[in-house]
Amino acid sequence: MLATVLHGPGDVRFEHVEEPRILLPTDAIIKLSASCICGSDLWPYRGLQPMNGPAHMGHEYCGIVVDVGSDVTTVKPGQFVVGSFCLSDNTCPHCQHGFQSSCVQREFMSGAQAPYARVPLADGTLVATPEVPPEDLIPSLLAVSDVLGTGWYAADAARVQPGSTVVVVGDGAVGLMGVLSAKQMGAGRIIAMSRHKHRQELALEYGATDIVTERGEAGVAQIKALTGGVGADSVLECVGTQESMRQALQSARPGAMVGYVGVPHGVEFDGQSLFFAQVGMLGGPAPVRRFLPHLMDLVLTRKINPGKVFDLAIPLADVAEGYRAMDERRAIKTLLRV
Amino acid sequence: MLATVLHGPGDVRFEHVEEPRILLPTDAIIKLSASCICGSDLWPYRGLQPMNGPAHMGHEYCGIVVDVGSDVTTVKPGQFVVGSFCLSDNTCPHCQHGFQSSCVQREFMSGAQAPYARVPLADGTLVATPEVPPEDLIPSLLAVSDVLGTGWYAADAARVQPGSTVVVVGDGAVGLMGVLSAKQMGAGRIIAMSRHKHRQELALEYGATDIVTERGEAGVAQIKALTGGVGADSVLECVGTQESMRQALQSARPGAMVGYVGVPHGVEFDGQSLFFAQVGMLGGPAPVRRFLPHLMDLVLTRKINPGKVFDLAIPLADVAEGYRAMDERRAIKTLLRV
């Protein structure tokens, strides 16, 4: 089959690869209903993350099961499934505590920017819908797999409560999903930091009550001005740089939590500063599996529309253009039609 | 009067100082019922923290109000009071959120290793007992002021729940109070890390279920062995060094919280390691004021006996010996009889 392989910085190729097949009795093979490009795919694309040779790209997925290994009992061929970008057995103690992204058997999904993909640990990872969903819900169900699940985790880790004042740092797809998630959790005020008109509009549509366009010290000053000098109860850090993390920490009131989901690149913390700021932190790869049933239900009952975050939809064969569009910030997130 | 002044590393003097008097209408003056030496007093005593000239030592206190400023309404001369080592107005937004240790008017108490002390922000800081308590409860009420309040905050920040598995890093007075606090909060298992027999005994008396004597990698391995390879739900970091913080983070399971109350000295965190460990953190100076009424009640009704942490009681005039005893770890915590 033809699928997406990253050969080096800026070098995305749609080329022949072996079709996936069952390697372990716990595997499933799915036919992708759609695929997409993640903000985190841009780290290696931009040469900001080391690579060990060519990489089969794509970790967000939903689709129809076409084959399962002999140990798989919870899904079967013909079913529509969504899975997390973190593969987990969903039975180990970490999974039982709701942190499936730290499963003792954890693997990260790969190879999903393709017509077919192998999903290891299928029983623990995949959740099937009662029936094959209508076509128009595919983008939203695909979003659940990572970008919505990650934004939701940011809000959960930041302990958003009904009435909370929330700041979202980062106006990428995850940040926008963070806005949606905070809104669903009942936040009273949601301040989105964004300098891009199109993203601001989507943030407002997803529930943002305020937009702050400034960054750095000026951005923090604006947050403080909007919160009577206090700072936010919950901050969602959805970027992963030292600047965005500083912005997040300084936007939080003492006792607040920062949920950080942007993979930190070059981020360091000084213990004493963090201590006296008295700001709590919880981050990590999102345990999407914990949230999957609830988020899939919200989509299937059309209560949320996370799929709107895909503002570019192109054929899978044009995947290289999809990377370029996101790299140049012409697109928030690219859907790949399979 | 004669009081305690630290002139430089190792140089504690009991010498003549001016008697405190009302400087602001929000001040109170108290006659100390007892005073004590804090583990944090040892940082400057050991030369590990810069000093700006001689310092009037002592920030833990309880006693009888002898004078109040014209604005003070909640306490009056003759009443017995306990206050936090963090002075706060208890009305600002941070105080209202329960983080009085980040009060917009916050000051740190000083000069309480003395017969009399000035307490700024008296209305917000002090809590009076219904009547003057019996003499034998004074050590426990004094402990509430900082060491118990700080151990309690560590457990609160680490989100100890009924049934939780808790690790306490540090067998100083705060660590021992962390054990007591976790027990009060209903922890199912409390693992105290301690190499000192006397401290181990007190930890067991306060509710520890297990003692780990190893440190570093061996200590972490022991914690993992005791928790079926999982790690703790909550970790209380009560030291403040890079080694103790590493120990704390590595003892925690993914999704756990580390409550850290040892003032970090030279502690740094790598963002990416923290991200993939998926361990949450909340620290800072303890908002003791939030807990004061509850903790004072637990002492007055004799449900807890935190005062037992004082294993050396000497006259205030011998304060220099009290510092030496704690510095040399001959004493866990020194009570100063006034």
Automatic annotation (TrEMBL), chains A, B:
PANTHER family: DEHYDROGENASE, ZINC-CONTAINING, PUTATIVE (AFU_ORTHOLOGUE AFUA_2G02810)-RELATED, ZINC-TYPE ALCOHOL DEHYDROGENASE-LIKE. One of its GO terms (molecular function) is oxidoreductase activity, acting on the CH-OH group of donors, NAD or NADP as acceptor. Keywords: Metal-binding, Oxidoreductase, Zinc. The keyword Signal does not apply. Belongs to the zinc-containing alcohol dehydrogenase family. Its cofactor is Zn(2+). CDD domains: FDH_like_ADH3 (cd08287). Residues 8-336 form the Enoyl reductase (ER) domain. It comes from the Bacteria. It comes from Dyella jiangningensis. This is IMP dehydrogenase. InterPro entries: ADH-like_C, ADH-like_N, ADH_Zn_CS, ER, GroES-like_sf, NAD(P)-bd_dom_sf. SUPFAM superfamilies: GroES-like, NAD(P)-binding Rossmann-fold domains.
